[in-house]
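Input sequence (376 aa), recorded before submission:
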Amino acid sequence: MATVTLRDLRKEYGNGQIVAVDDIDLSVEDGEFVTVVGPSGCGKSTTLRMIAGLERPTDGNIYVGGNDVTDVHARKRDVAMVFQNYALYPHKTVEQNMAFGLRMSTDLTKDERSEKVRETAAMMGIEDLLDQKPDELSGGQKQRVALGRAIVRDPDVFLFDEPLSNLDAKLRTTMRTEIQRLQNELATTSIYVTHDQEEAMTMGDRIVILDGGEIQQTGVPKEVYNDPANEFVGGFIGSPSMNFLDVTVETDGGTTRLVGDGDSEFSYELHDERLRNAVRGHQQLTLGVRPEDVSVSGPGGNAVETTVEVIEPVGSDNYLHLDVGEDFIARVASDVEPDNGERIHVSFDAGDLHLFDADDGESLLYEPEQSATPTV
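Predicted structure, token format:
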């Protein structure tokens, strides 16, 4: 096991015309499971491939266990990578696929390699598949073989590049649990790349959100969800996505209100001192509120009158699409069933509001944790 540290890591293509990874600093602790999430093209897989040694950084350094491995060949790095497409040799049996890395990177005898493979296969529940070839396996079985091939090497670091994206929804959930069980059992430093924010939130000790090759926020999943650093993180993390409304700050004597712009005709008085202090000096803002924090209420107070456009039943909840703003959703209990076209009132507590600068999208309420500069 080992720490992984990225310092000023950068990757450019086309003589600098495309910046895939933009000066990333990140430290992963020994035994920690970190998930990296972001939209397609954000640089997450490129970052992983640089850690593995499959891509060479344009600038910056990579440290594994305190050792600078930036210029070390992939074969000599004690890391194991699990790929999205399994990357199994079709002409080799499961046992031969799992033993291949041991044969290439260790001095173990054939019998010793076979013993390790069988022990790992038993751990993965695939001991009955050792004589089969990949074409004879299901998607879930192939993924278990790919995981077993990485585990059998007993590496310092596991790297996962969207390993579950080719599986159906039910099997993804099963394999997600399986990977978490293995992580608890092996306690190996792991970096897991995914485009699925639910995977990232449920699996990681910490979550790293990337966009445009830059880290937008790093933290414990619950903290990232409750206190997004900017509008991008607020909208990317959570399902359904956070609702956003353009508002103007109006102050009249000792009263401060957020007034909806455009078609969002509402006025929300800020009684909370923290919110009043946050909006001071600002005129135009973006108000964010998560669908699950919107409730159907009676008129009065800060309640917002709106029209129900569409109702989506999703089992235990109903999603109410409202005309407060574009794609505004209230996630309510299944027994809350207004009619399409009905006028209702909705409300949200001040403690559930998120406020973002209208120009740069940065949160006015974000309180970053004090974290040390990456060290080696």
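Checked by second reader. Residues 4-228 form a domain with the Rossmann fold fold (CATH 3.40.50.300).
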